[in-house]
Write a structure and sequence with these properties.
Blueprint (H helix, E strand, L loop, with lengths): L1 H19 L4 H13 L10 E5 L2 E8 L2 E8 L9 E4 L5 E6 L5 E6 L18 E3 L1 E5 L4 H14 L8
Antiparallel strand pairs: 1-2, 2-3, 3-6, 4-5, 5-8, 6-7
Length: 160
C-alpha cells in the first residue's frame, strides 16, 4: 500500500516539475520575432517559421533564393552576446555557442542547393558556432527581448 502511494506521489511530482520546466514558446515566438524582425516581428521577415522549444527554423527570401535558418538556443553561450557595427554601418547581434547554434542553408528557385553561395552575402553556410543578424531597433529594446529569450532558453551554463 505504501509503495503504491509513494509511486503515485513520485509520478505526480515529476509530472508537475516537468510541466513547469517547459519552454514557453509564446515568449520565444515574441522575443525572437522582435529580435529578428524589429517592430514588424516575424511578419517583417517571413511567414514560414516553426518554433519547437528553443529551436527555431524559418525560411526567408534572399534575392532569388530561399534562405533556411535554424537557431538552437540550447547551444547558446549567452555570456558571449554582443553587438558590433559592420562594414555597412549597421549594428549586428553576435552570439556564440556550440556547433549548430546557427545553421543556414539556401536553395535556388529550382530547388537546387545554393548553400555555398551564401559566402557572397557574408553568411557562413551550414552549421556554425555563431548567430549573426542585424539589429533593427534601439539596442535597449533589443536587449529586453534578448533577456526574455534567455529566461526561456538558458543555453550553456558558463561563468565566463
Amino acid at each position: 500500500m505504501y509503495k503504491k502511494i509513494f509511486i503515485f506521489f513520485t509520478f505526480l511530482f515529476f509530472s508537475f516539475s516537468s510541466a513547469f520546466s517547459r519552454v514557453n514558446e509564446n515568449v520565444v515566438h515574441d522575443a525572437l520575432g522582435f529580435m529578428i524582425g524589429g517592430d514588424g516581428g516575424w511578419g517583417a521577415v517571413t511567414n514560414e517559421y516553426e518554433i519547437d522549444g528553443c529551436v527555431t527554423t524559418y525560411v526567408q527570401a534572399l534575392g532569388d533564393m530561399n534562405l533556411i535558418a535554424i537557431y538552437d538556443f540550447n547551444k547558446a553561450l549567452w555570456n558571449s552576446a554582443s553587438s558590433q557595427i559592420g562594414e555597412d554601418g549597421r549594428e549586428y547581434f553576435i552570439l556564440n555557442g556550440e556547433i549548430g547554434v546557427q545553421e543556414v542553408y539556401a536553395y535556388d528557385a529550382y530547388g537546387e542547393d545554393a548553400t555555398e553561395g551564401l559566402w557572397i552575402f557574408g553568411i557562413e553556410p551550414g552549421p556554425s558556432t555563431t548567430i549573426f543578424f542585424p539589429i533593427l531597433v534601439d539596442i535597449s529594446r533589443f536587449e529586453n527581448a534578448m533577456y526574455d529569450l534567455m529566461d526561456e532558453c538558458p543555453g550553456i551554463k558558463s561563468k565566463y
